[in-house]
Amino acid sequence: MADASEIYKHFEPTVQHNALALSNIHTLTSWGVGTAAGILGLTGWNGFIFFVACWAAISGLILGVKCGGQPGVYFKSGAMDVAGTPMLNTLLSYVLVWTLMHALVYIYD
Prior knowledge:
Radius of gyration: 17 Å
Shape: elongated
């Protein structure tokens, strides 16, 4: 059985607020990175490598600046909540914006 310090370690409304703020950051940055990839004309694996590189930079900034290097204080799963889990969720938004911007800029040349 878990001890009392583990049960009361995270206050649920605060954790939910942090998760919502993190979700907003990830969504907006995936749109921005998708726009940049589309305008730069990245295609194929180059676009996915660009996404992973930007994702690593953004997650590092969130972990270092916003969490102060201690994501376990703000999220239940720590760094996994910041960098790992939402990556696949925002990948779809990234691909949508990436292809839209690429089509708008390069198809009608």
